[in-house]
Amino acid sequence: MKITPQHIQDINHSYLSDHKDGFDFLTNSLAARGHDIPSILKKLGDFQVAIPSWALGAGGTRFGRFGFQGEPASLEQKIDDVGILHALTQTAGAISLHIPWDVPKDYNAIKERAAAHRILFDAVNSNTFQDQKNAKGSYKFGSLSNTNKSVREQAIAHNKEVIAIGERLGSKSLTVWLADGANFPGQSNFQTALQHTQDSLQQIYKALPNDWKVFIEYKPYEPNFYSTVIQDWGTSYMLATACGEKAYTLVDLGHHLPNSNIEQIVSTLMLQGKLGGFHFNDSKYGDDDLTVGSVKPYALFLIFNALVYGMENNPQNPYPAWMIDASHNIKDPLEDLIQSLEAIQEAYAKALLIDQGLLRQAQEAHDVTLCQELLQDAYRTDVRPLLRQARLDGGGSLHPLKAYRELNVRRQLIQERGADSVATGL
User: Fold this and answer.
1) Which residue segment(s) compose the domain that 222 sits in?
2) pTM score over 0.90
């Protein structure tokens, strides 16, 4: 299924009058406070978030997976699903592939299909957290950190293959996430595991094209629970520094111990010029991979405050690669992603309303009360009319989720693909 501009225009028509009233009221108020509305709208329109190919079908847990009808059973169908999201939201302008789940059979045809949806290829993701068919070595006891040199070499070769696939698609970055770690005390030597990982990453780094980046992800636990080799942002930063200037840390919102101050982590990495990528999701306890903004919307806003400050004040840091990394166990994956995209844009818009000059003055004067007021005034502002106008300016839907349901997208996908289709990958 492909959503046409006419589909969107027809549905938008019934909402235009109410939108104009709400937009005029908000922008008049914001303009009176000195905000540059055209600049904010442009930033919202330019802000694109990659959709991971594995998030377009139902996810799963350690206990099972409940499929969702009409899932994309091929890479072509996954690209079409991202096309639906982008047509509605004008925010999902890229797809991130997981290899070997999504290796193209016909590269030219895949690139043409993505281009037809105005979709770019974001970071490619390697997979050494599960054994692949016909592989000689097993990753049961680690990949890049494995005590067995032949297993490490196999994992290194896989990452190099992923880079080559990404080059053919026009991608410019590689994301490395490792499940390597231990479940029991004494199971592995921490220093040896870390040294093997650094040596392996340095070999992968040498294979990077000149205009590429590598993002090193971290996670404190799961699937190993006693230790993870790259357990925190400091270890990732250390490894990225050891690799070179094209290596960066990747922050995933779910990859932290409870109550970690993620905005401080973001600020530190951007100051050092080492924040390369950012994965959005939400959680109550750990790596829950829930809809963005569904549990901790204020925490997301505070993180965006740090991100906005860094983007404006840290030229030494590259523009981060944004991606949603979530698992949809009980919701329609496309509806979940629409809600996540909305929450990301909302937090970003609110952070753009913070008067950073006044906030800095209040910080210098130790006016803690005013600091809180400045943040919460921006957070309490209903910025949804700004999001709607940004989407409207780009040819998107005023109300993406309503449009998705009015167009009966899921029903049409089921008719096209069948009720028993299963997404490739997880």
Assistant:
1) 48-355+413-417
2) yes
